[in-house]
Design goal:
single chain; about 110 residues; alpha+beta; hypothetical protein PF0899 fold; 3-stranded mixed beta sheet; 2 helices; binds zinc ion
C-alpha cells in the first residue's frame, strides 16, 4: 500500500508542474527509484492509471530508472556503489555506511505536449 500514497503525491506534483508550464497533455514521466526502495514499478503504474483518469496526465508513459545503493566510507570519505560482495570500501577496505541514495524515489523529468 506504500505505492498508493507515493503515487498520489507524484501525480499531484506532475499535474501542478504541467499546469505551471501551460501544458495540455503529459506524454512521459521519468522516475528514479533507488535500488533499496520498496517501490514496485507495476504498483506505481497501476495507481498512476487510476489517479490520472480524466486529467491531462491520462495515458502518460512512465519510465523507471533504477539507481544503485551508494555507500560512504568514513575512513577516506569517498562514496561508492555497493560492491558485488560485502560493503567494503574499494579504496581502503573499511566497511562503508549506507547513504540515502538507493532509497530515493523522485521525478527526473516530465515531457509535455
Ligand atoms: Zn575507504
Amino acid at each position: 500500500m506504500h505505492e498508493y500514497a507515493v503515487t498520489k503525491g507524484l501525480v499531484n506534483i506532475v499535474l501542478e508542474e504541467a499546469q505551471k508550464a501551460g501544458a495540455s497533455k503529459i506524454s512521459l514521466i521519468r522516475l528514479v527509484i533507488g535500488d533499496l526502495s520498496t517501490i514496485i514499478d507495476e504498483s506505481v503504474q497501476m495507481y498512476f492509471n487510476i489517479f490520472t483518469e480524466g486529467t491531462i496526465a491520462e495515458g502518460a508513459r512512465l519510465e523507471f530508472r533504477r539507481v544503485y545503493a551508494k555507500f560512504h566510507c568514513r575512513e577516506c570519505g569517498i562514496e561508492f556503489e555497493k560492491p558485488k560482495t560485502g560493503f567494503d570500501c574499494p579504496n581502503c577496505g573499511k566497511m562503508g555506511i549506507l547513504t540515502d541514495s538507493g532509497k530515493e524515489f523522485y521525478i527526473e523529468s516530465i515531457e509535455v505536449d
